[in-house]
Amino acid sequence: MGYVFDFNDAVAYEQWFAKPQNLAVLHMQCRLMIEMLEAHPGKSILDIGCGTGECLKFCHEAGLCATGVEPSPYMLDIAEKRLGCSADLHRAKAEDLPFDDNSFHYA
Fold first, then answer.
1. Among residues 42, 47, 51, 56, which one has the least CA distance to residue 84?
2. What is the pLDDT of residue 1?
3. At 30, phi and psi to the nearest 5?
4. Which residues fall within 8 angstroms of residue 39, CB to CB, at 6 or more apart?
């Protein structure tokens, strides 16, 4: 089991993404991931360790059915505020996912 972000980590993470150049890098990575997966709108994606939901937001905007898992309640709080009902969020660890095998097109 790894480190789970606390409140201060979540705040620092969010502040890091407040800088346009950092957010631009993440969006470039998300675009590359979607291109490499050849992901199509309407397909489902699971973001394991979704953090504050920035990548899930991008996936949703690309037309994917977005689901995220994150062990940190502080990171999930930010993700829920950011995403509203546009993604399905769960508090869980990667080692114990609350889904059946093959529940998603991409992970």
1. 56
2. 62
3. -65, -45
4. 45, 59, 62, 64, 105, 106
Pairing of the two strands 65-70 and 87-91:
parallel
CA distance linking residue 21 with residue 77, whole number of Å:
24
CA distance 69 to 103: 14
Residue 2 banded pLDDT, cuts 50, 70, 90:
confident
3-state secondary structure of 47: strand
Where does the chain have alpha helices with state H?
A: 7-17, 20-37, 54-61, 73-83
Q: What is the pLDDT of residues 18-49, one digit of tens each?
A: 999 999 999 999 999 999 999 999 999 999 99
Residues 98 and 103: their CA atoms lie apart, in Å, by: 10
Nearest residue to 94 via CA among 2, 18, 30, 9: 2
Residue owning tokens 């998300």:
30
Please give the model's pTM, rounded to 2 decimal places. Answer: 0.91
